[in-house]
Amino acid sequence: MKPLKITSNFEVFESLEALPEAIQELMKNAFEARDKAYAPYSQFNVGAAIALDNNETITGSNQENASYPSGLCAERTAIYYAGAKYPDARVKDIAISVRSVKHRVETPVPPCGACRQALVEYEVKQNEAIAVYFMGETGQVMKANSIKDLLPLVFDKDSL
Ligand code: THU
């Protein structure tokens, strides 16, 4: 037996204002997307905004369905739209914000496992890390420099 230790790195910012202006703008796009979420079942709204290297910003929000598993998270709505609309563009950053109708979310909420898997596909495809910024409705913002910090031991094309 040989132990294997895997380390992930994150940065914690006390508020959105502590981040560069371009990221503040990207997060504001995520806020706007979040407020357009269709989440009548969970009442948990999520918005994602993706900055591409062609200077386009793609946004998405969670889209729920009466048949619950047919719904889709905000991050996947956004990344698949980005991939569909600009297949040759590189993804630079993704900003994510959540808001619950039931309680005030003041701590950063990271993307779910399925979204991490969807996002890492694009990081591997472009061979360049994607920075992830995530937060609640207000408060601290967390940053990962790569999807792989959120998803160590990645399953990707090399696993096939
Ligand atoms: N949700 C997202 O949009 N992104 C995540 O990373 C986690 C969960 C959505 C799915 C569902 O509409 C609601 O949040 C509650 O799980």
Automatic annotation (TrEMBL):
Q: Which Pfam families match?
A: dCMP_cyt_deam_1 (PF00383)
Where do the annotations place Zn(2+) binding? C73, C112, C115
* Gene Ontology terms describing biological process: nucleobase-containing small molecule metabolic process; pyrimidine-containing compound metabolic process
So where does substrate get bound? N62, Q63, E64, N65, A66, S67, Y68
Any one Gene Ontology MF annotation carried by this entry is:
cytidine deaminase activity
Reaction(s) the record says it catalyses: 2'-deoxycytidine + H2O + H(+) = 2'-deoxyuridine + NH4(+); cytidine + H2O + H(+) = uridine + NH4(+)
Q: Where is the active site?
A: E75
Give start and end of each CMP/dCMP-type deaminase domain: 21-149
The protein's superkingdom reads Bacteria
Q: Which cofactor does it need?
A: Zn(2+)
EC number annotated for this UniProt entry: 3.5.4.5
Q: What class of enzyme is it?
A: hydrolase
The cellular component terms of Gene Ontology attached to this UniProt record, alphabetical and capped at eight, are:
cytosol
Q: Which InterPro entries match?
A: APOBEC/CMP_deaminase_Zn-bd, CMP_dCMP_dom, Cyt/Deoxycyt_deaminase, Cyt_deam_tetra, Cytidine_deaminase-like
What UniProt keywords are attached to this protein's entry?
Hydrolase, Metal-binding, Zinc
Describe the family membership recorded for this protein in Swiss-Prot or TrEMBL. Answer: Belongs to the cytidine and deoxycytidylate deaminase family.
Explain the purpose of this protein: This enzyme scavenges exogenous and endogenous cytidine and 2'-deoxycytidine for UMP synthesis.
Name this polypeptide is given: Cytidine deaminase
